[in-house]
Amino acid sequence: MARAHLNDLYLDYDDHGSGESVILVHGHPFDRSMWRPQIRHLVEANYRVVVPDLRGYGKTEVRPGVTTLSVFADDIIALLEHLGIRRTVVVGLSMGGQIVMDLAARFADRITAIVLADTFPDAETSDGRQSRMETADQLVRDGMSGYTDHNISKMLSPTTMTERPDVVDHVRTMMLVAPPAGAAAALRGRALRREYVSTLEGLEIPALIVVGADDEFTTVTDAERMHHSIASSELVVIDDTGHLPNLERPDTFNAALTAFLDAKAPTS
Known about the structure:
Layout: E1 2-6, E2 9-16, E3 20-25, H1 36-44, E4 47-52, H2 69-83, E5 88-93, H3 95-106, E6 111-117, H4 126-142, H5 145-155, H6 158-163, H7 165-177, H8 180-191, H9 197-201, E7 207-212, H10 220-229, E8 233-238, H11 245-248, H12 250-264
Parallel strand pairs: 3-4, 3-5, 5-6, 6-7, 7-8
Antiparallel strand pairs: 1-2, 2-4
């Protein structure tokens, strides 16, 4: 574990291995521990793996209020500068995928390839904006327990809920210990997000799109639409999997990830 002072906050991260760099960007309301199955796999495949806790999550400092996707993206660029990484592959899941899209929109020259897992590029709807704002207020008022109980079965497929108690426990723990003020700030920021459809349509770098076949938050249709938008993209649909395929079916996810990286990611 390491810590860096970036953009007026202390950000915690892990930096493993050597070789081509890969940044893993977690989703909401999780932390960098969600990438445990990928870290060892990628290091053994001779990649350097950098895994931050986003601001307001895990061990990184909380900044209450509103945290936009661009603020998260700026933190990642600052971390790259701190580590002396000029160009990198960026992998993001859910909110992390939207952060990757923001990076691609504003810092395309820093990215060699992207992986978008269980995410979507659209701006928030008016109803969705109101719902996220109300949920943010609820988290600050009531904490993470009720939110976790309500959403965990939506995060994971029925198969995972029944057959993988270890994964269920890990996901539940990440959700319960997420700082409410940090999670709320991220929800408010996502409520205000721009659209990234135009970014994907103009993307000139390789992209891998992964989605769980049973994902309730981002559907296979969402993933197919992104696949058709990006000229140089591949699509992998993982069966019996919900919103977190990297944890629910890590062997399948890892195989798709390294196959893509080995074939597509150019040397920086």
